[in-house]
Amino acid sequence: MSDTKPTPGLAPGNASLAPQEALQPAERVARVQPFIVMDVMNQAAAIERAGGSVIHMEVGQPSAPTPATIRAAAGRALEQGRIGYTQALGTDSLRARIARHYGQAYGVEVPGERVVVTTGSSGGFILAFLACFQPGARVAITAPGYPAYRNILIALGLEPVAIEVGPETRFALTPELIARAHADKPLAGVLTMSPANPTGVVMAPEAIAAVAAECRRLGLWYISDEIYHGLTYDQPATTALAADPDAIIVNSFSKYYCMTGWRVGWLIVPQRLVRPIERLQQNLSISVPYLSQVAGEAAFEATAECEAIKAGYAENRAYLLQALPAIGLGDFLPVDGAFYIYCDIGRYSNDSMAFCRDVLTQSGVAITPGLDFDEGRGARTVRLSFAGSLSECEEAVSRLGGWLQHR
């Protein structure tokens, strides 16, 4: 009998391969789809590097700089020299300031102890999902909806349950839809977003309350993504905490405060989750960067600057609501909030990937295929971001109109 032992990590039947070639990524990672909007951004950047001109309407990112008040606070902290770790849950002062914001903005009392500072909303989702759900748990999300929900859940070994929503529910989840999905196979949680990406739809207070009540009745975690709060045009957004003090809130300084690159956000969680999430944060990231936390605290003093930027979005929105139908792109959802228009292109194409590729390469306008947001129906939709300047929106409409006319 041979005394030869298999090489550690070498799969049986692959003896001819070096060990590093035989090893493969985890199966769940292979199921994580690309974030298509980032691929579009890469393609647009390649065109620009080659000397081409691109109007960027693909990425959900404010084009305005971070307000001066925020940058000045970070600059002062940097001048002090010591930039180190903070407590895993965030600095006491930032957590207290976020808690105070809920009283001022919504009339909801939140103890600072229930606030967790996170690395943007993305870090918040990872912490919340890990703290709330057992491996394999099923979590309801909407289709169309933000694609990172689906992919983060899959990466963590959880099962996203995409529930199709449409005009009959204003593209939002309802108690009936949740109950039906739960009866089919039990859910562990529900995730909603208002204002929503990509639709821009804002849920009415009574709609949020109804979802919260249904989650409580069924014994499900309710997670509310409120990252676009502050960016509404006809009606204010309501926090889910007003309906259920046990709702888990995910928010960020990225959108309203123009701080995408600072990577700082927050969770509001029930008291029983604070210590488990603290343990996770201690091990996953130690703490959120100190400078970003200083900037986040200062953001609450930058409201005047942020409102001026928001006024620009409102101007862009008003222009596009008139201009897009005039060029043949008039079939879109309500644009209550955020800075997106989600548009049906079925009269032109049933392949949104090819449509967006051609728009980019032939007209120099970068927009996002609906397949990023809805795997079932997104082949006939696209998303346009109006977070840039009015002149950029005008130029985009001119280019799109000419391209549609001659395609």
Detailed description of the structure:
The chain is an alpha/beta fold and 407 residues long. Helices cover 42% and strands 13% of the residues. The protein has a seven-stranded mixed β-sheet, with helices on both faces. It has a three-stranded antiparallel β-sheet with strand order 9-12-11. β3, α7 and β4 form a beta-alpha-beta unit. The longest helix has 24 residues. The protein starts with 18 loop residues before the first helix and ends with a helix.
Key words describing this protein structure:
alpha/beta; three-stranded antiparallel β-sheet; 42% helix
List the helices and strands and how they pair.
Blueprint: H1 19-22, H2 27-30, H3 36-49, E1 55-56, H4 68-79, H5 92-106, E2 115-118, H6 120-132, E3 138-143, H7 147-155, E4 159-164, H8 175-184, E5 189-193, H9 205-218, E6 221-225, E7 248-252, E8 265-268, H10 271-284, H11 290-299, H12 303-326, E9 340-344, H13 352-363, E10 365-366, E11 368-369, E12 381-385, H14 390-406
Parallel strand pairs: 1-10, 3-4, 3-5, 5-6, 6-7
Antiparallel strand pairs: 2-8, 7-8, 9-12, 11-12
